[in-house]
Amino acid sequence: MIALLTRELEKVFAQFPATSSILSLYYKNMVGKEIHMGNICKNDKVLCIGGGSFPCTALQIAQRTGAYVEVIDIDPIAIKNARRVVASLHMEKNIKIIEGRGQEIDPSRFSVIHIARQACPHIEILNNILNRASNGARILMRSNKNHLKTIHRFLNEACCNGKCCCMEKDYTFMQETVFFIKSHGGKRNEKVSSVYSDDTTNSSPSLAG
Fold it and tell me: What are the DSSP E strand ranges found in 9-154?
C-alpha cells in the first residue's frame, strides 16, 4: 500500500518538477544515511533499480555526492516522467534514465547498486546482482518488514557461498535499507560501521575482493 501510494504521488509531483524540494524532504534523511552507509562519493557509478516517475533518490545521490547515476525502470510512463524531471532540473549530465528489468540488467559497470522498495521481484533482482556485479560492489536495498526475513535468509545463504559479506541494517520510517558488499570469498563476520555509530573515522566499508 505504501509503495503504491508513493508511486502515485511521484506521478503527481512529476507534472510539477519545481516542487522537487517538497518531495525531497521525504527522502532527505533516508538517502543521507544510505549515502553514508554505502560510502558513496564522486568517483562512484551508481545504478538505481526502480526510479519511478520522480527519481528523487537518484537526484539526491547525484546532487549530494557528484556521482554519476543511471536509473532503470520497467514502466514507460515513469521513464518519460523521470526524464522530464531530470531535464527540468538540468541534471542530464549526471543522471541517465533507461528502460529495463532489474533481474536482467548487467550491473558489472557500477560500483554502487541501489534497489528501490517498489522494484520487483526482489529475490530475482538480488540473484542477478550477486551473480553479475563486480567484486566490491556496494549494494543498498530497501524493503518492508514483511519481506525482510526472506531477504535476510537469501543473503545469509549467499554469504555462506562466498557471494557477499558485510550486512548492516538501517531502520528508517516505515521501511528498512539493507546494505551488503558483493565479495567472492568474503567472511561473514566482516563488519561495516553503522550509520548510528559515533565512530566516523572508520565509516568506509572494507571491500573484500
Answer: 45-49, 68-73, 95-99, 112-115, 138-143
Local confidence pLDDT in tens for the 209 residues of the chain: 545 555 655 555 556 565 666 667 778 888 999 999 999 999 999 999 999 888 999 999 999 999 999 999 999 999 999 999 999 889 999 999 999 999 999 999 999 999 998 898 989 999 999 989 998 999 999 887 777 778 888 888 887 777 776 666 665 555 688 888 887 544 433 333 333 223 333 333 322 22
CA-nearest of 42, 82, 44, 47 to 63 is 42
Q: Output the nine-digit C-alpha cell for 86.
A: 531530470
Amino acid identity of residue 152, one-letter, is H
Nearest to 111 by CA among 38, 50, 49: 38
Total Cβ atoms within 10 A of residue 198: 7
